[in-house]
Amino acid sequence: MVYAIVRAGGRQEKVSVGDHVTLDRVEAEAGSTIELPAVMLVDGDEVTTSADELSKVTVTAEVQENLRGKKIVIHKFKNKTGYHKRQGHRSELTRVKVTSIA
């Protein structure tokens, strides 16, 4: 089984061909392709972590859609003072499908 660990946004994701992965927003339109930098490559029993060999590895993915994540509600409260503050946040995300690891 071939899979790769790629750097995407501030995180690392384990991907193989055909996987659908949700990443932090990537500046690309739906239907376009992007390349993700590989951190590690596993091909059967062979593990590659050398920077020189990984520079030759390309992980390509097709952008499926740009979307927004689930709403997170932040509520700050201080007892006996009447202070409370509500704030919401939704992350900008991109869903991609890994098409090849070469």
From TrEMBL:
GO cellular component: cytoplasm; ribonucleoprotein complex; ribosome
Pfam families: Ribosomal_L21p (PF00829)
InterPro entries given in the database record: bL21-like, bL21-like_sf, Ribosomal_bL21
GO biological process, one term: translation
Coiled coil spans: none
SUPFAM superfamilies membership: L21p-like
UniProt KW keywords: Ribonucleoprotein, Ribosomal protein, RNA-binding, rRNA-binding
One annotated GO molecular function: rRNA binding
PANTHER family hit by this protein: 50S RIBOSOMAL PROTEIN L21, LARGE RIBOSOMAL SUBUNIT PROTEIN BL21M
Protein family (similarity comment): Belongs to the bacterial ribosomal protein bL21 family.
NCBIfam families from the UniProt entry: L21
Description of how the protein assembles with itself and partners: Part of the 50S ribosomal subunit. Contacts protein L20.
Chain's role: This protein binds to 23S rRNA in the presence of protein L20.
Protein's name in the database: Large ribosomal subunit protein bL21
Gene this protein is translated from: rplU
